[in-house]
Amino acid sequence: MRISEDPAPGQRLGRYELLRLIGEGGMAQVWAARMEGSRGFHKVVALKTLIPALARDPQFQRMFLDEANLAAKIHHRNVVEILDLGDTDGVLFLVMEWIDGQTMQRLLRPGLRPMPISPAMAARVVADAAHGLHAAHELHDERAVPLGIVHRDVCPQNILIDRDGTVKVADFGIVKAFERLGDTTQTGEIKGKGEYMSPEQAQGYQVDRRSDIFSLGVVLFEAVTGALPFQVLHDLVLPQTGSSEPPRPTLIAPQCPRDLEEIILKALARDPDQRFQTAGEMASALEDFLMRRSGVITTAHVAELLMARCGDKLEEERQRIADAIVPQQRPGWRPKPGATLSVGPPSEGRSRNARTAPRRGIGGLMRAGSDALRPVALPWLVASVSTGVAVASLMFVALSRPRDQRPIVDPIAVQTQPSAAVVKLNGVVLGVGSQVIARPKPGVSLVVEARSSDGVSQTVEITSESPARIQINLD
Questions:
Q1: What residues are designated binding site for ATP?
Q2: Average pLDDT value for residue range 64-82
Q3: Residues 153, 162, 212, 371: which is the catalytic one?
């Protein structure tokens, strides 16, 4: 039994009618859907369907249902609510509250270039996310036994902000189920987004709530500076390697207050024992910072920033949803012929594994599995080059591209001396110290600038013919 290869608006899963595909990734599709009840009741929800390859796997089904049932027990204003879990005609799906808003990723990157937000605003958003995570981490069962929930994929794509400025953490459950399926050990690939992973998660060790705290520290670093502290090659995480220490945020964003910098660095401590021990503790530190430095920053301030940066996109998405609902409200309207979720073998002429190119939405619940709707990043590998210089970052590619169309891994290592130099690519900050940059296509040139703390700078042009290692000496 399977979902049809090309579901379309008007198809139904029980009492849910699909309205509009808003996200698709390697594990699931996310739809805006209409929940229908008696006497004309209806409500817009977000409905996530697993891709057929996973939905057909009995072992994954059991694990996904276990994890989703745990996640459904989380009730907090800063967590996306799970409303229903269904299995209709062999199609496994999850129903969540509809978030009329945007992801934090869109807030930080409304266009092609990253746009950091003020330290106070970053502290407000991340503190609220920390409150939601703490509620999940603290969850107990009916016998008061801790459930040990860990998100495992905390990142800007999984932090949603609705129109009134409420911050909500999304997408508990699927990553844990995928890890339990054994994919990590079978393929050597770490699921999730490596640039936000804790060292212990990247190396395949057992994780606890402090791993989520590290990931939240990366999010806070990015929100304040516009750059990531760690960026490295995806799929090549070597368990035997270590990781470099994060750069100080003030090297990239001098306006970052020192006390906020200390909060970020504590969250990013390599040793879990040196981090905040609970997300609630991190939230309290951020709330104290806000009271000392900025006074009261409310959800209204967050909503104002969201509308200033993403208001047009929000209105466009709201109109698309309204347009999708209108036909269903007309008297005598019926789904188009064939608009059902089918049961049986794949359509003739198409292989069972055939997949259409991922589509991209801009509003509502924007996550669709481990890699949906995000600019392609080549995540975290900590590797040592033969010269002994640790290469601990890779440029964040600004162009969106489906995950299954990965570039050829033929990177260029840019090494700086001194190692604390800030490195920019075409004017965009990549990070501090040595960087690994994806090799440009023939005919394309990139400009790399390195600047030391005393103001000495040097630029280098990189092309498809550049050597694999470039040294920039600022001493």
A1: 48
A2: 87
A3: 153
